[in-house]
Amino acid sequence: MGAYILRRLLLVIPTLLGIMIINFALVQFVPGGPIEQIIAQMEGGGDVFESFAGGGSEVSQGGDSDYIGARGLPPEFIAELEREFGFDKPPLERFLSMMWNYMRFDFGESYFRSISVIDLVLEKMPVSITLGLWSTLLAYLISIPLGIRKAVRDGSSFDTWTSGAIIVGYAIPGFLFAILLIVLFAGGSYWRIFPLRGLTSDNWESLSLIGKLLDYFWHIALPVLASTISAFATLTLLTKNSFLDEIKKQYVMTARAKGLPERRVLYGHVFRNAMLIVISGFPALFIGVFFGGSLIIETLFSLDGLGRLGFEAAVARDYPVVFGTLFAFSLLGLIVGIVTDLTYVLIDPRIDFERRG
């Protein structure tokens, strides 16, 4: 197993390098860099894309061609901006310098916020941890028992109406379900039971420990429910199908023929094999919800998390934030893939990736 883990770790390097090369190369052809953003604001254009809508010359990240909207600014000022942002260097030199800094986990500072990328991510982390952790746990706590129940009672009326409810839940987008929750329970048109913004109340610091916990869960109830609905539907059907596949196997029929109680057959024999796919996918599911935070849900509930951070950085062309978070999250995602394989082995020691290799 050690050789397999070593091979996977060595594959992380070229995979991560490929991700960064592709994204860095694509950015070179995207108009409206950070310098153009600043110039557009100084010229009163509001946004650089408004200048493109009216036509004009092509924009590059370097200093060889004129910037749209920069005709009234001194060339020395434009050159100083390029030096400040590092765009006076060739793209290859900028990429190599960036990767060298990232290898030392130096992600630099945001262009427009005067704060390091790490501090900026840590500032947004509580929201993403809240949505990712509680949404994943809630999905598993509901989906696994429900999926097992549906598998045991396959074809019954219970299975039929729960499948209908699951399909409806899967078909409803998370943001639409969030709007429904706001309308019903957050003062939209009916009841004002839950708050609409933030993770805590203004007087959170003055509350007791129990009061802080209750206030925290009071605030996260609606956004967590909105984030859980799609994962809940998928996970329930996956659990049911896994159980159905195992129940039909010979060893289950043998265990029943020996007179073992049904509960022992299900939870002593079937559960371990059926849950292999479901439980081993927990790390990947958590990371997916954690870093794929819904921009719309965060906006609807006035939560400032990684979803909004990524969107705002992309719109503002805040490249240190865009590439820094891309590098860190891609690296973490690749490591989680290895952890997922180890989880397979932990749950079922019969699996040997090294022998397969």
UniProtKB/TrEMBL annotation:
Source organism per UniProt: Limimaricola cinnabarinus LL-001
The record gives the membrane topology as:
Multi-pass membrane protein
Presence of the UniProt keyword Zinc in the record:
no
Q: Which UniProt keywords apply?
A: Cell inner membrane, Cell membrane, Membrane, Transmembrane, Transmembrane helix, Transport
Q: Which domain of life is it from?
A: Bacteria
Q: Which segments cross the bilayer?
A: 9-30, 129-148, 160-186, 216-239, 274-301, 321-347
A cellular component term from Gene Ontology for this protein is: plasma membrane
Question: What family name appears in the similarity comment?
Answer: Belongs to the binding-protein-dependent transport system permease family.
Transmembrane helix as UniProt keyword:
yes
Q: Where in the cell is it found?
A: Cell inner membrane; Cell membrane
Query: What name appears for this protein in its UniProt entry?
Result: Oligopeptide transport system permease protein OppB
Q: Where is the ABC transmembrane type-1 domain?
A: 125-344
